[in-house]
Amino acid sequence: xxxxxxxxxxxxxxxxxxxxxxxxxxxxxxxxxxxxxxxxxxxxxxxxxxxxxxxxxxxxxxxxxxxxxxxxxxxxxxxxxxxxxxxxxxxxxxxxxxxxxxxxxxxxxxxxxxxxx
Length: 117
Prior knowledge:
It is built from four helices and four strands. The protein is of the alpha+beta class and about 120 residues long. The strands form two sheets. It has a two-stranded parallel ribbon with strand order 1-2. A two-stranded antiparallel ribbon has the order 3-4. α1 packs parallel to α3.
């Protein structure tokens, strides 16, 4: 017997801007948050979610945990350019790169992102 071994990447990301847009329509002071890894950032769902959030002003934070390996693929083999944070401005989404090991920096960046959302 052969079993399929798979990991679905980024399928949850488009749901976050949908929820964030609902919060906007209802006038709620809430945001939706999508947490994902660098591998998911290379999937089409992530780009679709960023575009939806930008076009509709969805109250959404996108937080990518980049450990440098998408399951087993080094980031050098995934994309060319200045990392994942550089993709946000292409969609009109303010972005910042933060050292995930610096708890204070992550807190402050998240606080500012929440203010902007």
